[in-house]
Amino acid sequence: METIGHLINGEIRADSENTQAIFNPSTGSVEKRVVLGGVASVEDAVAAAKAAYPVWRATPPIRRARVMQEFKRLLEANADTICRLIGEEHGKIKHDAMGELQRGIENVEYACGVPELLKGEHSRNVGPNIDSWSEFQPLGVVAGITPFNFPVMVPLWMYPLAIACGNCFILKPSERVPGSTLFVAQLLQEAGLPPGVFNVVNGDREVVDQLIAHKGISAISFVGSTPVAEAIYTKASALGKRCQALGGAKNHAIVMPDADMDNAVNQLLGAAFGSSGERCMALSVAVAVGDAAADMLVSKLSAAMEDLKVGAFEDESNDFGPVITEAHKERILGLITSAEDDGADVVVDGRRPYVDGYPFGFYVGATLIDRVTTSMESYRQEIFGPVLQVVRVNSMEEAMQIINEHEYGNGTCIFTRDGEAARYFSDHIEVGMVGINVPLPVPVAYHSFGGWKRSFFGDLSAYGPDGVRFYTRRKTITQRWPSMNVREGVTFSMPTMK
Ligand code: NAD
């Protein structure tokens, strides 16, 4: 059986006895194992990164960018293999895995522009013969910890930009899906990155705790669930480390009575059930304004859902695949049942889907629940499964109040034809990423990604311009070359240009 190891100092290491099973969620069987790191692997990775840092930091940005250009070419050339590896461990269908990879590649493209991104700010003659400039210097060795649901894209949010900015990086991927992440890491080595600049240490919370506590690591990027994001942010910031920690979500779409209902239904289907709802930007709640809109929405959604196909990752005709583990499947089923017990209507019930030939896969069918209220457990929690809940309200104000009162604030969307309503919504909604007739408003690589409230802990969000600022620190230099002809006297007052 294949064992996925670490990548430390340019070499693959799978030398530990301590391993964990990796499931193929489509079949429910264990097909690989992953090595779980400990103190020694973290120490070795930090030592390799520290050793590589002085030369990498001094490498001209244009040369660092060329490594990223070659990395992009290799990612595109190996797209089929990467998507197969994602599918085997995550269960994502190839069309969806291709989308994940493409969104990741766009972050590599952005990192290719690093000579431009690192340009500083310059002011001439801030005083007599005095010039001043700010430059953006790398932090040193930084670490990233990533979730299971985007094994390639979320790591690509982090390390290409961090490395292009001159840092060395240690990645701790999700132990449930390490294969595609490690394969992609090897492509970056092949692209010409010196050994030690990028290291991957596999493992669980033990490795995470060591990375956070390690004195050799200056900053932590985290993406995962909210309780872990909050704990990591608290620990890292108490140690004086820069930290950005992206957490969970509950994303609402307001469906206004004037919306193009057929379009809203199509958009909601993809955003709620794509990737089995295991996206932090999945739309999991439709807030319908007025009973007429709600009745039409539920009737059109349930009709369209008859054609949705859940199944194994290899079959591209499937709309979405299994969920990540048996335990996660049971949790989703429990939340659907709790909604039913609390008085909601399970209009389309995906609790017992039949997937021919895959009796042990972790499948949940597309589920639609109507008449959900905000006090229900299924509403309050992030379900992270193919479940769309409908909440009925009487006005847009009521819909916005519900969204603003939810503890999460990652993404949201409004379906409407009314520009004034859309503008009011985007202005006043307390959510970090907003769509207007766009169901998954995931910012492109040259903007930045970050939710509000308990979906994000930190100041600088992920990738794009904020990513450059996160992975660098500003240094401001003020310089004077005194003229031989002009001698300054002694002054004890604060220098000014008065
Ligand atoms: P998770 O929090 O269980 O795990 C994320 C990472 O943290 C993994 O690498 C894991 O090994 C590690 N980890 C888990 N428990 C830990 C602990 N107690 N201490 C230290 N490290 C720990 O998340 P997941 O189940 O892999 O991913 C799904 C979650 O991630 C969802 O909540 C989803 O919304 C969220 N997510 C958020 C974003 C975003 O951008 N906001 C993006 C993707 C996923």
UniProtKB/TrEMBL annotation:
Its EC number is 1.2.1.27. Pfam families: Aldedh (PF00171). Residues 15-477 form the Aldehyde dehydrogenase domain. Coiled coil: none annotated. One of its GO terms (biological process) is L-valine catabolic process. It comes from the Bacteria. One of its GO terms (molecular function) is methylmalonate-semialdehyde dehydrogenase (acylating, NAD) activity. The keyword NAD applies. Keywords: NAD, Oxidoreductase. It is an enzyme of class 1 (oxidoreductase). PANTHER family: MALONATE-SEMIALDEHYDE DEHYDROGENASE. This is methylmalonate-semialdehyde dehydrogenase (CoA acylating). It comes from Enterovibrio norvegicus.
